[in-house]
Specification:
Hsp33 domain; 2 domains; 6-stranded mixed beta sheet; about 35% helix; globular; binds zinc ion; Heat_shock_Hsp33; Heat_shock_Hsp33_C
């Protein structure tokens, strides 16, 4: 089934909510980067949060998430936009540890807890918004919650989960974000806090195959949720052979000639999707002719 995201309001507009299925999206990242299970969970949780944060943007706005926790996984980078497109990678994709004491993938150990989560939002016209918080958990869901509460000052709760099959492929992935709107009533806050204490953990909801709509019903209570919009979600990189060609052309004739003379070819690698673009001597010569 294709991944999608739903946007919703709850409790008569006092609560804004997002939920998403990302099984295929995280699966594509796993296949492209050959991530091992703990790395898949860390990257998948980050991409799942990322695509929901992206869905909060408008038009051509986009954001980049960078998580550097000092752990063996190294940096996690995720890009997302308002159209449900997300891409991401981790510095050391072949990172895996034994399950933690709760029988879960030990994301905290892979990510580390000594570092920062930062988000840069490109809101157009060379205007950027940057927020940064220290990592408080390393399990990432709590870290995104802390980011939203502290840096964006929106009372929020983030739940993200990724389950991995024994052959390293992705069994299921998804998550939710709920946010309290200004002017929210005390009894709504109490009701939501009570629900969050007692709901099925997100990893369990994912395992049970709950749809984004069902996740919101579970988190906010059936009958409380008003769906606003549904958005398809996918792993999509912004790189292309044409873009790389343009970059090469922008280097100028001498630089390209130097590549021909030195290596007789050129190669460009995209970290985000792990694609390598190869340019032969003839390709490079035709680029020079274009100039
Ligand atoms: Zn790419």
């Amino acid at each position: 089934m294709e991944d999608y995201l739903v946007k919703a309001l709850a409790y008569n507009g006092q609560v804004r909510a997002y939920a998403v299925s990302t099984t295929e999206t995280v699966g594509e990242a796993q296949r492209r980067h050959y991530t091992w299970p703990t790395a898949s969970a860390a990257l998948g949780r980050s991409m799942t949060a990322g695509v929901m944060l992206g869905a909060m943007l408008k038009g051509e706005e986009k954001l980049t998430i960078k998580i550097e926790g000092g752990g063996p996984l190294g940096v996690i980078l995720v890009d997302a936009n308002a159209n449900g497109e997300v891409r991401g990678y981790v510095a050391n994709p072949q990172t895996h540890f034994d399950l933690n004491e709760h029988g879960k993938l030990d994301v905290r150990r892979a990510v580390g807890t000594d570092g920062m989560l930062s988000i840069v939002k490109d809101i157009g016209l060379r205007d950027y918004f940057t927020g940064q918080v220290p990592l408080v958990s390393g399990e990432l869901g709590e870290d995104f919650t802390y980011y939203l509460v502290t840096s964006e000052q929106v009372p929020s709760s983030v739940g993200v989960g990724v389950l991995v099959n024994p052959d390293n492929t992705i069994l299921a992935a998804g998550g939710f974000i709920i946010q309290l709107m200004p002017g929210v009533e005390d009894e709504t806050i109490t009701a939501i806090e009570e629900r969050l204490r007692t709901i099925t953990p997100i990893s369990k909801m994912i395992q049970q195959g709950l749809t984004p709509e069902q996740i919101l019903d579970e988190v906010l209570g059936e009958g409380n949720v008003r769906l606003l919009e549904k958005l398809p979600v996918q792993f999509k990189c912004q790189c292309s052979r044409e873009r790389i060609s343009n970059t090469l052309v922008s280097l100028g004739k001498d630089e390209i000639q130097d590549m021909i003379d030195t290596d007789g070819q050129a190669e460009a690698h995209c970290h985000f999707c792990n694609e390598t673009y190869h340019f032969t001597k003839e390709d490079l010569e035709s680029l020079i002719k274009e100039l």
